[in-house]
Amino acid sequence: MIKENQKNKFPELVEAIKDGMENLKASNITILDLTELENSVCDYFIICDANSNTQVRAISNSVEDNVRKTLNEKPWHVEGLDNSQWILMDYVHVAAHVFQAETRDFYDLEGLWGDAKVTVLENNF
Asked: Where are the membrane-spanning stretches (predicted)?
């Protein structure tokens, strides 16, 4: 859940992705704002983790469904559906990353993009 003083801080696409993740109880949702970084690959990363391959796939489906229903947009590209350890959903300016927890720890995107503004969302799951 985004705190009240953080509402409308993020673009609609970021909100729609976040809501899709929360709908299926994604854990440790983190938003990296890359807009002020030189040479960033996009404007935002939204990262979450899940407990199983099944939940990783279900969360990515929820994100895609919610973004389509809310904004009538589809991802430009999706990777990782075969093994569901890490699914990347590329919406051009925003990238959604759905990880299994140990895979997220291994790749440490938050560490790689350590200069980004970080927002960790509270969830009650």
From this structure: none
